[in-house]
Amino acid sequence: MHRVNKKVLFLAILLAAITSFLIYSYIRGIEKSDIQTEYSYIVAAAKTVESRAEILSNDIKMIKVETTSVNPQAFTNMNDIIGKRARSKIIEGEQILKDRIATEEQMLLSYVIPEGKRAITVNVNEASEVGDFIRPGDHVDILVTFDKYELENNVQKIIYPRVTKVVLQDILVLGMGQLQEVPEKPRQELPKTVTLAVTLEEAEKLTFIEETAVIKMVLRNVDDHNKVTTSGALREDMVTDRGKIVLPK
Questions:
Q1: What tens digit of pLDDT does each residue of 45-66 get?
Q2: Theoretical Cys-Cys bridge with 141: which of 12, 29, 218, 225, CB 3.0 to 4.6 Å?
């Protein structure tokens, strides 16, 4: 009986020693891992910063991240950012990168136009610009209503009926009025013009349309960039031969 107790005691001591060794090895592994991991301090957004808004000191903060996770364009000094403007919306917690901010001069229109595009300004009113809900950075479709048009030659007379048609889709809005809008400076009156980013071919169409037809802008969902083929809308599409209005399905 005495010998059995000794065996139990020996096993208990052995298990305790093994457990202690495993715990010690685990702790040493964690410490060694911490020593080998390098960290850096970078600037991140303390809260969401809207597009074109001026970046203030309370908009940003320093955060500690693993060096391997640092973007090469990340800022490491808050003073390099304060007073500049966000080119596009910056989400809370996001690393602030050099290509996401700009000086006041760089926010001028020529810096905002996408490569391969041109800026063109068209006249608008409250109805044509979706009740003043359009803002720089939005994308719109351009609807045009063409009046009845007759074309006659030596052979035949062609009559083009009055029609409403989508002529341009997913067009970037660069600015409203004479200058680009700054979110923290609300407008006092509705802008009379909207500046759009278009290709040269689209600029030709817009110039012709503005002089000959009625323009309407359709505001798109921020994530919707799909283009749809339409056949246009005629009076006959909505009115029966008895003159009754046919509601869209």
A1: 999 998 878 899 999 999 998 8
A2: 218
